[in-house]
Amino acid sequence: MKNSLRVALMCLGLLSAFAHAETGVAKLYVGAGFTDGSVEVSNNNDRSLGTVSGVLGLQFLDFLGVELAVGSGSDQTDSILSDPLVTYQAVMLRLGYRWDRTAVYLLAGQARLDVDSDLNNTDAGNAFGFGINLFGNDTTALNFNYLDIDDGAFSTATIGFQYFFGGFR
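^ that's the sequence the OP posted. Answer follows.
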C-alpha cells in the first residue's frame, strides 16, 4: 500500500508540474466524490461498499485528457479510510465532448485493485467508465461517474465535485 501511495504521489507531482508549465495549453482539474461500490466476491456474489474517491486530471484539449483516480471502500463507514476492504488506483485516458455547461466523457485505462483476501484475489485489470459534468460556473462542476475495473470485479457509481483550475473553457 505504501509503494502504491508513493507512485501515485509521484505521478500527481509530475502532472501538476506539467500543468503549471503549460498553463496555456493543458488544464489541471481535481475532484472528490462519494460512491456506492460493488465488489465481486469469490462465490460469484456482489458485496456493496461505501467508497470515497478522488481524481486528478489533465485536460490537453477539449476532448482529450488523462485522469488518475484513487478510491477506498468498506462495508462499514468508520473503516473506509482506516481499514478498507478495497482500494484502487487507475490511470485512464479521458475522451469527451462538451457543449455549453455540460460535458460527457468516456474513460479507459489500467487499474490496480487491492481487495481483502477474504473477498477476492483480483489485483489488476482494465478500467472502463463514463461520466457527465454539469458546470455551475467556469471552474466547478457536479460530477456523475461510473467506473468498472477488471470486468466487473469492482465497480463504482460516483457523485461528487470537480474543480478546473483556470476554468473549463
